[in-house]
TrEMBL record:
Its main location: membrane. This is TIGR00297 family protein. It comes from the Archaea. The chain crosses the membrane at residues 20-47, 106-126, 147-173, 179-198, 233-249, 278-296, 317-334, 384-408, 414-437, 449-469. It is a multi-pass membrane protein. Belongs to the TMEM19 family. Keywords: Membrane, Transmembrane, Transmembrane helix. InterPro entries: DUF92_TMEM19. It holds the Pfam family DUF92. It is found in: Membrane.
Length: 470
């Protein structure tokens, strides 16, 4: 056990040491860094299996062991090479953009590397230590990857934020720039949550590729907006979002990937708009989670229950909330159109709520549903099937979203807000059913894809109604 722990400790130290590359960023250009990462890739590719580095970092597998049978003896070096490949890709993008009007700042890449080296190394060390202490391994998922542990993911998030902020500060200390400390902290939080999210998603893609690329691209995107908030406000938004996501995780409404997805959404929606608009979106998640459990055994018996016991994943979060996120960002960037954006936001949340309630409650109806495209009787649970109970649930769910901003005094036009939100949510829900009966039935859209399109449709409908009625 101790020998295995020692080898893991050495590997993670080497992995973290790769992050020290960021110390060179202020003094050499992206082209030199591009060449350096290329040479690292080549060196790791042609490194002999019996090299001193391999013997130092990897215990020779026993005959018949999993490592020997699968041929994954040098899996650690493969991960190191993948990290170098990710850095190479980021540097290549930065170098190519130098010939355009766009820029991929090196301080952003430095932050992404810090998150994917120091952050992930700390997380892996915590995870490995916990496994050895408990003398048992976490269950395997269907892809054969180990399930992720919440404490190690939180460590990744915390260490990632600190080291990404330090890396950015180090770079800007040596370079003349007007980037504020608030912006650095804002990007460090966004990049670290994104990294923790990608690390929590079970996938065949190595985290040493997905984490740095995901973190780097998200930080680049938001750095281009030039929008930031005071660090204290950002910290409060982060803690608030994490606590609420954790509560959903503990009550088995969301899995780990959904926790970090909701945290990312929460931070962005709070800082770009207001806390209330995130609470409104949380209302959808709470109602959706609660009604997923509604007559769950009955829905399970007829094969229509939500998979994994009704636990939501990142796919559920993003398919139903991407439109809301985009509108919240637009709210912060284009305050001159704030009222229109608010009504569109109400429409998209109402659509997500109405559709979820229609699905979870409508499938329990004893009356036979009809197909929305033909109005002919069909089986319960078929894509595009609607029922009176489901339509009433969609209407009531949409009305709840319309009533909340009125009760909390967040809108000026009371009856307009209720009418536009309810109509947008109800019609958006039926757009979802229409897409299910056509595009989803033909295999052109998945269920998540249908939800994604329908929530945008609800936003457009509510926004259009607002412009017509105002």
């Amino acid at each position: 056990m101790f020998e295995k722990m020692e080898h893991e400790y050495r590997r993670q130290l080497l992995h973290a040491a790769f992050g020290l590359l960021v110390l060179l960023f202020p003094f050499i250009g992206a082209e030199i860094l591009l060449l350096l990462s290329f040479f690292v890739i080549m060196g790791l590719t042609f490194l002999p299996e019996d090299s001193p580095i391999n013997r130092y970092l990897y215990k020779k597998p026993l005959p018949g062991s999993r490592e020997m049978l699968t041929g994954n003896i040098n899996e650690g070096l493969k991960s190191a090479k993948n990290l170098a490949i990710a850095v190479f890709i980021l540097m290549l993008i930065s170098s190519l953009l130098d010939f355009t009007s766009y820029r991929f700042p090196l301080y952003v890449i430095a932050g992404a590397i810090a998150i994917s080296t120091f952050g992930t190394s700390a997380a892996k060390f915590i995870r490995h230590r916990k496994k050895l202490q408990s003398l048992r391994y976490e269950p395997k998922n269907i892809d054969g990857h180990e399930s992720h542990i919440l404490p190690s993911s939180i460590v990744l998030l915390g260490v990632g934020i600190i080291t990404a902020y330090i890396a950015g500060t180090w770079f800007l200390y040596w370079q003349e720039s007007d980037v504020s400390s608030n912006m650095l902290f804002f990007l460090a939080v966004i990049g670290s949550i994104t990294g923790a999210l990608f690390e929590s998603i079970p996938t065949r893609i190595d985290n040493n590729i997905s984490v740095p690329l995901g973190s780097g691209m998200s930080m680049w995107l938001f750095s281009s907006f030039g929008y930031s908030v005071p660090a204290q406000q950002m910290f409060i938004a982060l803690i608030f979002s994490l606590v609420l996501g954790y509560l959903a995780y503990r009550t088995k409404i969301a899995d780990l990937s959904a926790l970090f997805s909701a945290a990312l959404l929460g931070v962005l929606i709070i800082v770009f708009s207001e806390l209330f608009w995130f609470i409104l979106l949380l209302t959808f998640f709470i109602l959706g989670g609660a009604f997923t459990k509604f007559k769950y055994k009955y829905k399970e018996s007829i094969g229509l229950a939500q998979s994994k016991g009704g636990v939501r994943s990142y796919e559920n979060v993003f398919s139903n909330s991407t439109a809301a996120l985009i509108l919240a960002i637009c709210y912060g960037i284009y305050p001159q159109h704030a009222e229109l954006i608010i009504f569109a936001y109400l429409g998209t949340v109402a659509t997500a709520t109405g559709d979820t309630l229609a699905s979870e409650i409508g499938t329990t109806a004893h009356s036979q549903p009809i197909m929305i495209t033909t109005l002919k009787p069909t089986q319960t649970g078929v894509d595009g099937a609607v029922s009176i109970l489901g339509e009433l649930a969609a209407l009531l769910g949409s009305m709840v979203i319309g009533l909340l901003p009125i009760l909390f005094g967040r809108v000026d036009h009371v009856f307009l807000a209720l009418a536009v939100t309810t109509a947008g949510g109800f019609l958006g829900t039926n757009v979802d059913s229409l897409l299910g009966a056509t595009l989803q039935k033909r295999g052109l859209l998945s269920n998540s894809g249908v939800n994604f399109v329908a929530t945008f449709a609800g936003a457009i409908i509510s926004g259009a109604l607002y412009l017509l009625l105002i």
